[in-house]
Amino acid sequence: MKQKRDSKHRRAIALAKTREDFKCELCPNDTNLHGHHIIDLGFGGEGEPENILVVCKPCHDKIHNGEIKINTFDYR
């Protein structure tokens, strides 16, 4: 079951979407945008805009399927 994010995380995702002008950071798509935690919360990532990658649903699915790799080292 998908976890519901608290208000801090929802705000961080909203701020990241604004930062990226409501466009996917990996392709030109500007619809069905998600916030992907660069460093997962379970590994100490924070619910801050700096830890959020704005991606469309297809790119988000590719990240979670291992088709797109995100180098967390670039974001530390």
Write the topology of this structure.
Blueprint: H1 7-19, E1 33-37, E2 52-56, H2 57-64
Would you mind describing this structure in some detail?
With 76 residues, this protein is an alpha+beta fold. It has one domain. Helices cover 28% and strands 13% of the residues. The chain has a two-stranded antiparallel ribbon with strand order 1-2. The radius of gyration is 12 Å and the shape is globular. 20% of the residues are buried.
Jot down its keywords.
76 residues, alpha+beta, two-stranded antiparallel sheet, 2 strands, 28% helix, 13% strand, globular
Task: Give the SSE string.
Answer: HEEH
| First and last CA, distance | 29 Å
**Structural class computed from helices and strand pairing:** alpha+beta
What sort of overall outline do the alpha carbons produce when their principal axes are compared? globular
Radius of gyration equals 12 Å
Summarize the structure.
The protein has 76 residues and is of the alpha+beta class. It has helices at 7-19, 57-64, and strands at residues 33-37, 52-56. It has one domain.
